[in-house]
Amino acid sequence: MIPPKYRQLTVSRPIYSEDLFKEEYEKVQRHHKTMLDHLKAYFSCSKQKAKSVALTLLPIASWLPAYRFKEWIVQDMISGVSTGLVSVLQGLGFALLASVPAGYGLYAAFYPILIYFFFGTSKHISVGPFPVLSLMVGAVVNNLVPTSINATDVTLNERRVTVASSVTFLVGIFQLGLGILQVGFIVIYLSQTLVSGFTCAAAVNVLISQLKFILGISIDSPSGPLSNIWVLRDIFTQLHKTNIADLVTSIIIMIVVFVVKELNDRYKAKLPVPIPIEVIMTIIACGVSYACDFENIYNVDVVGTVVEGYQAPVAPDFEVLKNSVMDAFSMAIVGFAIAFSVAKVYSIKHDYVIDGNQELIAFGLSNMFCGSFKGFAASTSLSRSAVQESTGGKTQLAGLISALMSMIVILWIGFLLYPLQKSVLASLIVINLKGMLMQLREVPYLYRKDKPDCVVWIVSFIASVLLGLDIGLAVALGIELITVFEQEGVKIFRCPSPIFFANIDFFREKLTAAVGFNPLRILRKRNKALRKLKKLLKKGELQVTSRGLVLANAVVLSESEDDLNPEELDKPVNCKDFPVEINWNDDLPANIQVPRIYLHSIVLDFSSVSFLDISALKGLKLFKEFIRIDVNIYVTGCDSYIIEKLEQCSFFDNEIKSSIFFLTIHDAMLHIQETHPQTTRVADNCVQYNEISLHMRNRENAVSHPNV
After folding, report:
1. Interval 99-126: pLDDT, tens
2. What GO molecular function annotations does the UniProt record carry, in alphabetical order (predicted)?
3. Which long-range contacts (CB under 8 A, 24 or more apart) does 542-549 make?
């Protein structure tokens, strides 16, 4: 073959004007649907559509009939009990963040799961209190019911519970409304960088709010901008009043829990389930506090009487609803964004689909239900979800079992928590902030690789710490849009447009839709099929002959895939130790089914892509998924700035190479013709060119033109 630098191309075609081109070639017309067409389609009814809508709105009707009872029930029970123990403690602790009595946190750990069990689409997230959301609820509570008002403790607590439950009900209304309006895509405007800076700032806010419990001092809980500064000022002025019993208990709890959690992480492959150190330390601390009478001798602040049983539903306070509209909307967006991000991680890992709009509906109904029964806002906790998934949870049945653990505490054993120090709960909250606080390590990386994203992170963090989470989120969104729309050389509204956090998911979705298959699913199917073939070959039930692979006798393959590691399935198909070459488009023995694909190359025109951010670089790892199923990716017309940025961010490796970039589409097509001479005849066939619009406001596909 002639070396690349000596190869030449000659373009020979008529000179076309617009009129001459229209005369020679017929224009492909596309029917654009009107608003009336959309309304007719939306309100039309048929048996098939009714069934589809029912299954969409009630996902349990899809997965429950397919539940593998014998294989999954034990794992779901173990996962549910493990998650439930953590959920009870987090419910009690996060109630402190919400500024309500600890017992009401058990309601927040119970009610939302009951609704999500029926309406949610994620199989692995643990629904319930989340520290960021609880802190935002607490800010509203402290603003509307400050501790400085003249009221008895009972009356004050009742008013705080009313505010927390009312704002939770309003959060649910917003989420339900957004879900009905099908605007689940709104989370794309919260980039990974913004969410990282925001959640790290929220962790700092949580840490500051818990210092008064760890030190055992009594201070007011101001709200609004600069409230953290006033809290720190009050803490330092009253530092001499520190309760030594609370401080020593907190230090011991944090050290022991930190060490055991590190051991859990290090030896997670050897441990059947993580050591429930939070539960163990809580039981010990509760017993020691009771035996030594810490409440009376050392004057420590204890949980006290935990609300027993369930209370009748109550209507929300309309005065609270009127005064907390913006706060509730911020909470609705943040709660959904966090939950959807976590759910998306597990859906990709375990290869199933989640529906953003249905998740909004599920969380909306969950929060409305929870608020009606005096609970506070729910989302999902990263640590609880990790426990539910890592201990083998297969479905939301594990979540339902975890709710039963909360019910047991509410109905029968809540009184045992009376002597538990609030400093113990505060310590457990603080030690579980490690993951969010460690996001500070992203700043040096962002500074080296993408300074605009670094600015977004820093502004998001500082604004949220100083101005409060609600105002901080608004400021972060504004800065994020400014860094995108004012970036030098960026043409945001060109078609196709720059690729960044707000449209990378849309790009991936439309690219996979254009080729007609999901490359990751094809890859997993092939790896599963290869594993089955190797097992048959090892058992002697599959023989290699001149005609290929032949079964020695009839074989029935088990459908169980519990022993398969999802991470292994995402690796390239390794057929090196297989005796014959596998043609994945041929019939495979033992009725092993793998989807056939007849596409071998994809050419992407990046001539108008003048900007990429970190989120886009991560999303473009989609290239690797195509390459691993023998579909070559070629990128044309790419700006030198983009290529330099890809090199700086270590985008290229042994799979994605710089050689896939070509100057023009014509260069790439001639290269494909040389590498696939038998399947590509450019002169005889029309190559379909799908132009994908990444315009942030217009999300329709551009018209497909035949490129002659």
Report:
1. 999 899 999 999 999 999 999 999 999 9
2. secondary active sulfate transmembrane transporter activity
3. 542/589, 542/590, 544/579, 544/580, 548/580, 548/586, 549/580, 549/588, 549/589
